[in-house]
Amino acid sequence: MPTQYHFVMRSGPTVGKIYPLDAPEITIGRDAGNTITINDGEVSRKHARMELRGSTYLIQDLGSTNGTFVNGARISAMQVLNAGDTVAFGQGIVLVYEPVADQNATILSSKPPQPSSQVTAQSPMPIPTPKPSPAPSPAPRPAPVSAPVSKPASAPAPVSRPAPVPPPVYSGQVPAGPVPVPPEPAPEKKKFPVWLIVVIVLLVLICGCIGIFVVIDQLSLWCKVVPFLVPLLGGTCS
Predict the structure, then answer these.
(1) pLDDT tens digits, 36-80
(2) Are 51 and 60 in contact (CB under 8 A)?
(3) How many CB atoms lie within 10 A of CB 81?
(4) Which of 28, 133, 194, 221 could form a disulfide with 36 if both were Cys (CB 3.0 to 4.6 A apart)?
């Protein structure tokens, strides 16, 4: 797929670096396994995700700590990117979403055009012979000056107004109408953390052991159930 857009870092650890966008799905984060890796403390391990739909990209924040911003506004859902938009990860990492320039543009030749015919040294240029100047003709007599005849004033020509020029369209200009946003994909189900399960199991075991010792103490079953603990507790079994 030919590259149509890329990111240019405006603020961050590598200012001016270009990140090509040439995949249907792109992940951005601090981990090396991401499509675009930005090694900075403000960037989460998996910070954001981009998805190509049609001819443009959409960006989504992946629950990062410092957030993802498009043109200064923090996003909470899929956001369409337009040419010239700024995408910030936290406060210090700013990228510009730009179209890729045409690399196949033709370059005009700087050589001057060669004349079609050249004069060689073998064919000498003919020397023109001067022509005799004609005899001066007698000066004509001036015609009698007649009284000026007044002409009726003509109506002024109508002034043509120039055609209205449409306003120029700049890169990154906000469209007049709302931009349709494709449907948002279903969110991924979050897995229950393993460490929380282990803590719950340990609490249940501790509470069960405490309950067993309370029952043994209330029924005075120390000598029958755990006689080896009675001497340690300072008692004796009769």
Answers:
(1) 999 999 999 999 999 999 889 999 999 999 999 999 999 999 999
(2) yes
(3) 20
(4) 28
Q: HEC profile for the chain?
A: CCCCEEEEEEECCCCCCEEEECCCEEEEECCCCCCEECCCCCCCCCCEEEEEECCEEEEEECCCCCCEEECCEECCCCEECCCCCEEEECCCEEEEEEECCCCCCCCCCCCCCCCCCCCCCCCCCCCCCCCCCCCCCCCCCCCCCCCCCCCCCCCCCCCCCCCCCCCCCCCCCCCCCCCCCCCCCCCCCCCCCHHHHHHHHHHHHHHHHHHHHHHHHHHCCHHHHCHHHCHHHCCCCC
- Exposed, middle or buried, 142 (CB in 10 Å: 0-12/13-18/19+)? exposed
How big is the CA angle at 23 (ends 17 and 27), to the nearest 5 degrees?
70
Q: What token pair was written down for 186? A: 């279903």
Check: pTM over 0.90? Answer yes or no: no
Question: 200-205: long-range contacts (C-beta < 8 A, 24 or more apart)?
Answer: none
Token output for 75: 């996003």
* Residue 34 CB neighbour total at 10 angstroms: 18
Please report, to the nearest 10 degrees, the dihedral formed by the alpha carbons of residues 41, 45, 51, 52 taken in order. 60
pLDDT, tens digit (0-9, with 9 covering 90-100), for 165-174:
666 655 556 5
Both structure tokens of 132? 């005799």
> Could you give the angle at the alpha carbon of 41 between the alpha carbons of 39 and 42, nearest 5°?
105
- Residue 78 has a CB neighbour count (10 Å cut-off) of 18
Residue type, 217: D
